[in-house]
Amino acid sequence: MNVPLWVWAVTILGMVAVLAIDLAIVDHPWSKKSGPKEFGIRQAAWWAAFYMGVAILFGFGVMYFGGSTAGAEYFAGFITEKSLSVDNLFVFYLLMGAFAVPKKYQHEVLLIGIVIALVMRGFFIILGAQVINAWSEVFYLFGAFLIYTGYKIVRDHLKDDEEEKDFTQNPAVRLVKRFWPVTDDYHGAHLTVKLDGRRHVTPMLLVIVAIGVIDLVFAVDSIPAIFGLTQDAYIVFTANAFALLGLRQLYFLLAGLMDKLVYISWGLSAIMVFIGVKMILHALHENGVHAPEIGIGTSLTVIIGLMTVTIVASLIKARVDTGRRAAARAEVEKDAAADRS
């Protein structure tokens, strides 16, 4: 789409305004008396539904003003990035636990993480668009990278099942600890405090540093994925932005389901491999090689289908596992009752 500069400006200002309203309503920054509160499930559900509705309405607007192809590219990109964001929530969930972040401060940490992610992805989108315009063969590189990413998602998932990852010891966190002393406890939402005349950093700062590193890794993975679906920078940016907006509400909404979505990594892996193959076929076609092109309609269908199958299969497995555990407990209780009698 040929998007004027003023549309870019209005879009970015609109997103900033939505984040500001979110901050004002949810976090009550003006209220010093009440302080931060834990995020409720009902509150998270309403905000998650609001952000999803805004993203869908925006997609219909893209379809109306940009045409059906642009609309399909937006929805395919949005669903892909949203799916990757849900996978990212698993890492945030483990990170919050590793740093023992109090629940009443978790939504503030997530908000900062989202802002960092938006800035980083904006930078990578600009860089990616420039690289694609200057060197079309980059699609081969992006395609191979996405296929490797698909493999890495499954490999890391299987590895995490065998050993627990320590998110408190990444290089950036260790670097901060090297130069500043760290307090043992949280001091509200403060990043630094002065104790005994010396400036200390708090665990809250370490959490934000860790999230920033994770956001960087996720941006490297996700931006090539969406460029495999569309090369329109406006669609790439808005699909990413709307996938990130509402992420912290989704975190609290899905917190109870984190352990149940056991197959989501497999679904995301399949999507990465699919988009990687699509990019390589596109590069071959652009270089004059007779190769089939995968249309955006097919891409959208495959992405929705893979995520639907993944989620349904995960929930079925969770229900079966719950039934087996209940049956095992009943058998143990039956044996114990028989022994007592």
Spell the H/E element sequence: HHHHHHEEHHHHH
How many β-strands, per DSSP?
A: 2
Give, in spatial order, the strands making up the sheet with the most strands: 1-2
Q: Cα distance, first to last residue?
A: 78 Å
Give helix % range: over 70%
The total count of helices amounts to 11
Query: Helix- and strand-based class?
Result: mainly alpha
Low-confidence stretches: none
Content of β-strand: under 5%
Q: From the alpha-carbon coordinates, what is the Rg to the nearest angstrom?
A: 22 Å
> What oligomeric state is this?
single chain
* Overall mean confidence score, pLDDT: 81
Coarse morphology: globular
Q: How many distinct domains?
A: 1
Largest sheet: 2 strands, antiparallel
